[in-house]
């Protein structure tokens, strides 16, 4: 059905979300490029940031192209296996983002609370292990949940009240017992959110305590400002997921869910490059140098 079924809104919505997706792709591709080619951005923080950018770009790309096409066609359709593939891809990237945010919280905890041991504790091997575990859990969730959602019978309505294939509007169409897939979805979403949020809260609690022990008021203000931006993005991301998946089905409003989904599938991936990177002095300097000497940086001269 898309975001709205009003014909007069299709073209304006297409233009709005085309701009959002273009900015998302440009911002995250820029982060991936800069953190790959610039020698100053080879620390663990930027390693994790690069993977966050990959995940954000992947999440938006799974959703946005099909969504944009549907704004311009009179009959919005999706194939059965195309729908299953989109759900699987969405689960991979959304779960990966949940855990990469927790990994980044750990990275910031070590950097602020143990700065002298930072490069030892967060070594390259540790970075690779944490990122590998992130992708492992995300693929495992997708491999289990997607077949479970599509194992039920869909013999009733074939109108999906959403702008992409998500498990809640799909299960609402089933004419068979959905207790098992609903339980599986609730278990995975609840478990992933609980563990990742617990990790983030624990690390940021210790970060705040460490910041409060800083004697310089200017130093505390600067540190709090950095953490506030990060926590604002984390709060919006986790808040929308909790709203979507951890409320009883009887209270679900699919139209409201669609608005919440827009934030964590399209808006947050667009904002993350700004929140995490473009306010950073090192990234700004790397971006300026990249524009001045792109050939030398790629060793083409």
From TrEMBL:
Top-rank lineage group of the source organism: Eukaryota
Any GO CC annotation of this UniProt entry: plasma membrane
Membrane-traversing stretches: 12-35, 47-67, 87-106, 127-154, 193-212, 224-247, 259-278
One matching Pfam family: 7tm_4
Subcellular compartments: Cell membrane
Keywords noted in UniProt: Cell membrane, G-protein coupled receptor, Membrane, Olfaction, Receptor, Sensory transduction, Transducer, Transmembrane, Transmembrane helix
Membrane topology: Multi-pass membrane protein
GO molecular function, one term: G protein-coupled receptor activity
InterPro entries in alphabetical order: GPCR_Rhodpsn, GPCR_Rhodpsn_7TM, Olfact_rcpt
Domain G-protein coupled receptors family 1 profile: 27-276
PANTHER family: OLFACTORY RECEPTOR
The family this protein is said to belong to: Belongs to the G-protein coupled receptor 1 family.
This protein's name: Olfactory receptor
Annotated organism of origin: Myodes glareolus (Bank vole)
Organism placement in taxonomy: Eukaryota, Metazoa, Chordata, Craniata, Vertebrata
